[in-house]
Amino acid sequence: MMSSNEVVDSPFTEEEEDARAVIRTFLQRELEPVASLFVDDPSREREFWRRAGEAGVLGANIDERYGGPGMSALFGVVLSYELGRSPAGAIVGSSITADPGATHVLMSGGSEEHKHRLAKGIMSGDLTPAFAVTEPEAGSDALAMRTHAVRDGDEYVLNGSKTFISNGNKAELIYLAAKTDPTRRGAGVSMFLVEGQPAGLSRVRMKTMGYPAYDLAELYFDDVRVPAENLLLGEGRGMELMMSTFALDRLQMAARALGEADLAMELALEHAKTREMFGKSLFDFQNTKFVLADMKTQIEVGRAFLHEGIRKYRADRFTMSDGAMLKVWIPEMAGRVIDDALQLFGGSGFMDEMPIAQLYKGSRLHRLYAGTTEIQKETIARSL
């Protein structure tokens, strides 16, 4: 990702850079003025999704055959970075960044009928997605999931629960991982498309430490019936679809953390140059300059690391280990940078309404979700 005041050898295409400008303008106009309102009235976010659809921000990786722009999956990386770089990102959580990964599953595993029927609603923002894999007893070890699906004539009957599901309260398209063969691990996992609000599906909103407007939910499936044609790819091929999203997911998470580090740097630098202490600016103190210099260095190392990962992904050389290393290093780096930024704010940085305080709380999630730092290190170690 390029920071706002410099030119680097970008790994993104001209089309992706044009999309960045559209996303940045859209977030500034349509999200930043209203994001805080989502905290007390979550229903407002639905209108935001529709405005995202009008701006062309949703469904970017839907193929042209189904009426989409047919952009690369890397659009999601650009989107994640820009939401991280926006102060509103520290309020809403994942929000529209869930769209590219979930839509990738539809484009990879959905039937022609699904793609033609659902594409328009995804792009308009009328159909919001959720990717439901994690369970209370199967977090980082997703293959230990207990949610299961049993074939009954022309339907599958779903039973089980999912937790920590982004967009789970409002999603009309849930991509659900469930065991069709409980005796097997990866080979027994299948992926289903659960549409709308079928009988037997219940949702419970979860409150998080950071991202106060984050739509996070627990989902409960009690004899939920879905048409047999909503099985994606076929029985036992759920891991295939999950793995196809993991590489992109790691890039998106790293980009989100980098965007937040960039924002923290901008906030801290502005504060240091305007805060007066003992007759001079905070920036004039040598310690401040050294802290900011260290922050900037760490951020640029992270940017170079992410750019190399994007080049590998585009060249089909991006491995699970590459993704794990990005998922470890950039969120850890962002945590250090944001902590240093808050320290420069002093007591005012501890006030909850301050953007740096909101950023500090929200960024902590990146080292936990979609596989903790420790799980990522296990993946790296297996490649040695």
Fold and architecture overview:
- This protein is α+β, with helices and mostly antiparallel strands.
- 47% of the residues lie in helices and 15% in strands.
- A 4-stranded mixed sheet has the order 1-4-5-8, with helices on one face. A 4-stranded antiparallel sheet has the order 2-3-7-6, with no helix packed on it. Strands 9-10 form a two-stranded antiparallel ribbon.
- A hairpin with a 2-residue loop joins β9 (276-277) and β10 (280-281).
- α5 (98-109) packs antiparallel against α7 (238-274), α7 runs parallel beside α9 (320-345) and α7 (238-274) runs antiparallel to α10 (355-363).
- The protein is globular, with a radius of gyration of 21 Å.
- Mean pLDDT is 92; it is low at 3-7.
